[in-house]
Amino acid sequence: xxxxxxxxLELPWKLIISTIATWDFIASSHVSKKEIRNQFVFxxxxxxxxxxxxxxxxxxxxxxxxxxxxxxIINTVSLIGGYFLSNTICFWYLRKxxxxxxxxxxxxxxxxxxxSAIFLLKIVTTVMPSLFFLQILNIYTAYLVWEGCRAVxxxxxxxxxxxxxxxxxxxxxxxxxxxxxxHLMLPNx
Length: 189
Hints:
Radius of gyration: 17 Å
Distance between the termini: 37 Å
Strand content: under 5%
Number of helices: 8
Oligomer: single chain
């Protein structure tokens, strides 16, 4: 159990620090979609939501528990919805490009691990809201997708361009758009 927790926490850090080697490791370790979700995506969503709950409660001027809970629910919906929306659209785009060549597992692998930058930056900007400008570093997702396409999809540089653009746009903006829609529906939050 302790080793699983260390692996969950270690993989995004390795993706940020040594991206190429980590993507090669991910590509060589054949795991199922269920394992990717249960051992990476859902734990990181849970960690992110817990941090949001704790720090939004601490920073709230009134009704701290209610504020933390509402922000935690909003972030849960936006992260899960953004993940599944971007995964679905990216897989649709891959199948449109070359229907026989790519599988749903390939797409899910790239989308899942490319969310690392989103999770880490959400945690940092929640803990230290004055560092909101670090959200610009979400663009690092493009590099994660670029290297993921090389390692997982075995694409050369010429083939990756449009796929990286589409994947990056949906990975970065799906949670943001869902979050904004929820905030429009709940104006007093």
